[in-house]
Design a protein that fits this description.
- The protein is globular and about 40 Å long.
- It has 112 residues and is mainly beta.
- The chain is 0% helix and 50% strand.
């Protein structure tokens, strides 16, 4: 059964760090570009970061550039999003998309 599952969301204080995971079954993520998106309450879903399937080229939105890092572990069929220096405005449900398939999201809350 094809499935994408995000994990790693949590409540964290401003300035803290989290690592989100995007794991796939029935789908080899290495074959596809994989993107992380987020949706904050009352806002539209926005792209955060993505990594290419060919040469590992990465992209980051201006709001997270320099703080977030996307990476792949092909042996684990997983894509990670390392998030550092978190801010309250990073609070959102984070979604992963690979091969045009979406996971159900993981909640990140940044609050003191």
């Amino acid at each position: 059964q094809l499935q994408i599952v995000e994990s790693g969301g949590d409540l964290v204080q401003p300035g803290g760090s989290l690592r989100l995971s995007c794991a796939a079954s029935g789908l080899i993520l290495d074959y596809y570009p994989v993107g992380w998106f987020r949706q904050a309450p009352g806002k539209e879903r926005e792209g955060v970061s993505c990594i290419s399937s060919s040469d590992g080229t990465t992209y980051y939105s201006d709001s997270v550039k320099g703080r977030f890092t996307i990476s792949r572990d092909n042996a684990k069929n997983t894509v990670y999003l390392q998030m550092n220096s978190l801010k309250p405005e990073d609070t959102a449900v984070y979604y992963c998309n690979g091969g045009d398939y979406w996971g159900k999201g993981t909640l990140v809350t940044v609050s003191s």
